[in-house]
Amino acid sequence: MPMHHTRSAFITGAATGIGEALVVRFQREGWQVFAGYRERPPDQARWFGLPNVVAVPCDVTDADQVAAAAGTVGRQTGGMLEVVINNAGYSSREGVIEAANMTEYRRAFEVNFWGPIRVVQAMTPMLRQSRGRIINTTSASVYMTIPMASAYPASKAALVVFTQHLRMELAPFGIEVTNLVPSGVETPMVDLGPEVSAQFWALIPEPLREQYRRHFLDGATAIGANFKLEPPDVFADAVWKRIVCAKRLKLMYVIGPRSAAVLPWLHRLLPAQQVQNIWRRMFSAKSG
Predict the structure, then answer these.
(1) So which residues are the catalytic ones?
(2) For position 190, what pLDDT does the model report?
(3) Topology (CATH) of 8-190+230-268
(4) Inter-residue contact 58 to 37 (CB < 8 Å)
């Protein structure tokens, strides 16, 4: 039966990492949570079997699955939904731009950009009924310039602009929209170990590989040496307190360790070329 008395949220990419932690946090607050997952069995998630949590198959690249997920939510909530969090993301492995794997590049946009649009289109009618909120998860990487990893930040930057337009269009209907910028969270997607570093370089065919090695560090090596990460549960607590509990939503929330939270300020305070020079120094191969 529909649960009209319980506030509800739909969260994509909920099987692991940020999404899993958000589901646990919302459930702890007494919400009914629809946890969207793609392929990992939901019985591995910490929220599996908890009261008021419904596992919903939802590959955001599949329009039919997104529509079916919306149908499940509508039937169980009586057509009212308070929060949508577009959290599903794909960290691509495309290599350098001049020899990029275009299948990987397109996959990044399918998951990180087109996926949220599909979800928004499917869920907005229910958000209208409750004057709800949409939280689009982007990335602090949009403020960086990372060698061998352009598809992910490019697709997330597109989502940032989409969020701005969506915020304006839905404001007259009482639906608030914001851009959530994680700035360093420990998730399966953010693996910065030596194996990942090797994978980055293996994507580049010879002789290009050695040419690029002379000039750049890979992203896993440079980012791991310069930024701290925080546990997903700490991040989820901050999202709950700063966004979900806010009376009105700001356009953007940067949440995470301070080392990365300053990234937007670099772009506001420094000339563009100076910011680019910072990343060039960070990712430059060190001679010695």
Answers:
(1) 152, 156
(2) 61
(3) Rossmann fold (3.40.50)
(4) yes
